[in-house]
Amino acid sequence: MIELRTPTQIEQMRPAGRFVASVITALSEKAAVGVNLLELDELAHRMIKDAGAESCYIDYHPSFGASPFGKVLCTSVNDAVLHGLPFDYTLQDGDLLSVDFAASVDGWVSDSALSVVVGTPREADLRLIGVTEKALAAGIAAAKPGGRLGDISAAIGAVAHEADLKVNLQFGGHGVGRTMHGEPHVANDGRAGRGLKLRPGLVIAIEPWFLHTTDEIVFDPDGWTIRSADGSRGAHAEHTVAITIDGPLVLTARD
Ligand code: MG
Question: Would the pTM of this model clear 0.90, i.e. be above it?
């Protein structure tokens, strides 16, 4: 079921968005050569505690996970791109790190992701991150009343195709509200003018993710960490966006 939020409810969702944005900012500032992924998870855990927020991940246990997630943060490094389960790994020079974080504040969820390079970047990785961010911006710009869900998907896909990237359609954006994952599914490619009509009150996570040279993925034995099938690196960008009569409102916008 697709639920629409009132303007009052969207106001109530702002603290969650601001909190998630503050965690993403803190993680991007802490991520550096020599920092362990478990330290990033601990930082997010501490911030959740201090804010009186609730983790959406720690008890999350869908059918594909071998066990409950057990951490509060996804950390995906290099050829890992989504759902990376934090483990005892120290970031190396040139690593491409994607962090994905969702939490609930006052009963409302927000969800956001960001990719960064630690240490000396490879030119191609910076380009991939740039394309992913550009696709996110294009998707957000299309999230306005009167449009269709397919407009968002098509806008994201167009940026990818322009950059000669293939688009995987297995994982994409989703409705956000009291829980982390609701309807509708927001594919990262599609046809403009098709699909659900976009109305004020629809709140969705828009989250393009791309791999350098493939759209095929493989899962780690833990059932969580998703990697490129060919070992090429991936990037991910995500914001939680409310469609309002004035257009898209990015709840997880960072300063
Ligand atoms: Mg997310």
Answer: yes
